[in-house]
Description:
Two copies of one chain form a homodimer. By secondary structure, the first copy, chain A, is an alpha+beta fold.
Amino acid sequence: MGIDRKRLERSIDDLGRIGETPRGGLTRLALTDEDKRGRDWIVARMREAGLRVTVDQMGNIFGERPGAEPLPPVLMGSHVDSVPTGGKYDGQLGVLCGLETIRTLNDQRIRTRHPVALVIFTNEEGARFQPAMIASGVMAGKIALEDAYGARDTDGVRLVDALERIGYLGSEPCVARPFRAYLELHIEQGPILEEEGLAVGVVEGIVAISWSRLSLHGVQDHAGPTPMRIRHDALVAAAEVIAGVRGIAREIGGNLVATVGHLTVRPNIVNAIPGAATLSIDLRDPRTETLDRALPLVDRVVRDACAREGVRYELEHYWRVPFTPFAAEVVAAVDRAARASGARSRRILSGAGHDAQYMAAIGPTGMIFVPSRGGRSHCEEEFTPMDDIEYGANTLLLAALELAGRM
Amino acid sequence: MGIDRKRLERSIDDLGRIGETPRGGLTRLALTDEDKRGRDWIVARMREAGLRVTVDQMGNIFGERPGAEPLPPVLMGSHVDSVPTGGKYDGQLGVLCGLETIRTLNDQRIRTRHPVALVIFTNEEGARFQPAMIASGVMAGKIALEDAYGARDTDGVRLVDALERIGYLGSEPCVARPFRAYLELHIEQGPILEEEGLAVGVVEGIVAISWSRLSLHGVQDHAGPTPMRIRHDALVAAAEVIAGVRGIAREIGGNLVATVGHLTVRPNIVNAIPGAATLSIDLRDPRTETLDRALPLVDRVVRDACAREGVRYELEHYWRVPFTPFAAEVVAAVDRAARASGARSRRILSGAGHDAQYMAAIGPTGMIFVPSRGGRSHCEEEFTPMDDIEYGANTLLLAALELAGRM
Lengths: 407, 407
């Protein structure tokens, strides 16, 4: 038995047109009109598949296929929001493979002991509202509902108002409920599976992640008549920090990755010395201890850069998750399912955060990776071959079926 | 004889309220609603002073006080647009001292051989539309009218449409016409006059300026699962360029100033490796030859930074003005006027571009500087003491009177 490849391909095409960019990528930021249209499309497909659809206080969407017994469900899910000029695979592929799994169970009139449910999480990317994975974070009790509601986008719009505006401010409490397993299929977003010619990654856990925010306060002045000797240039300090963060990754080596992805400059015009700048620092490593080593080096890089330029600063390490191991029984089920599907596979770690990270805190969780061409994601060039997607979807189907218990 | 200090102070207060920021600075970007209100205010004052007001195709405003003979006018002027969160002195002070000069001539019923006229130039700052000094550039025949009309702000609005929207798309041709002299009073924007305890700078010329634009094309990717070894981070390359530009100023030394004031990053989110970045490079020196030395060093810094990170780039040195000497006879008239006003003064160079730079190409031109507290400008803290402003305004009055020929 297996999923319907043509039908899955059609779903990917259909949902991929909502928020499509001219160059074939996707811009579907959380709780925008595009996100609403994407949600409406998937909810309509869930209803067609006979699922009972509910929406919770964080706008998370659930669609349940009943089981034969009153037991906790096997959840399959991911997200449908994207980064700006992102791709058509990150997030939406996991949702659509979950939908395809349920459609296949329906086609084959398969009954399961546990219910099987599809879940779509709100604002996974963190591109519009921070932090990322905010809705699974609330569900896991790691983020207070009121804090999530008060998160603002760069235009000052609150998350709760954006939820209400698009009609996805649901009434179900967003709290941890028992589940048999949570399974998330996702693109790898790294180069390993492609480099090794594999179709499926059996994910054993998610690397430790740390996010920091740096605000630099220099002295805004005219770029012409202000001699170099009296300057306090916030952007020059920022540049030293960016180079220093790169240097930390080089110094520690191994699997540590370090990125400055966000930078704003004020007043940001050709002929003014930048008076202020803010930037983000993203550090990740499979070992939590490596971040314990790296963060003091960040502190030092920032302190030295700001001292040299005579710039004041605030540095905040505001978000941190340790290495997240997945449940051994779920990883083993995914491993068996991958083999049974005929996929060439390996055990792998996730370098990216996923809703599975928070779900792992409240129940047995695992993930299935499929390859990313060139290791690329969060860009319009994101691509996964359909052959690999089929192997991945069948792995999801077989793992869900084993965990839900075929009658 | 002298200007009316109280009246001038009141004008500064009145105009300074249009576009005032909560912290006492000014945001009055060119051709915005605030700029329109500022223009309307000054036009009303010009009409009250009996001036014949005309507006040209670039939105430059002229108000002429007739002379006794059919001779070219003495022009006094500056601009009323500001940078974002700029100050209340840059630009508007020169316009208001020119207005005060005309009011004083009226009060004293002084007749001059040459007409005396006030001029307000459009978009001097270059903060909204580039290049800076675009309207005097068109008048001097250095920028084509259609190029200026097609300049777009960051929202894609064309300058010509912005002019029309606020009702300042005039019909007078924007072309060079003979003038007896152009006099511009302006804040120094540097620390010299204050450091030396002087009230007036007799400006001998404007330093050479070069503006460059750098576009960096890396590879946008996810900040988590993308190993350091395969990254091509546009922001890391940008940071090296920023540090390198600072290094060029250090290496060449002397009076060279080098600034990266503008930087944009794409997609500019915490968890994506920046795929693209653009930045500006502003170089200035009293000697044109110093820029000839510095620009090849910029080329090398950019080439090396991009080669190291594996990032493609385009570097364009798109705007360049050589050292601009002012007319000896005008400088001498300003010098005599400063002494006659009782001001402590010195000869000085301007480190900033001004409309006087283009005006110097088409007629006898000079400038009068007054001090900037702490050398600061293009910021809310911009400040010039009223005592110095009075000396400066009287210098302008006496210089204009000498050049226009008192009857």
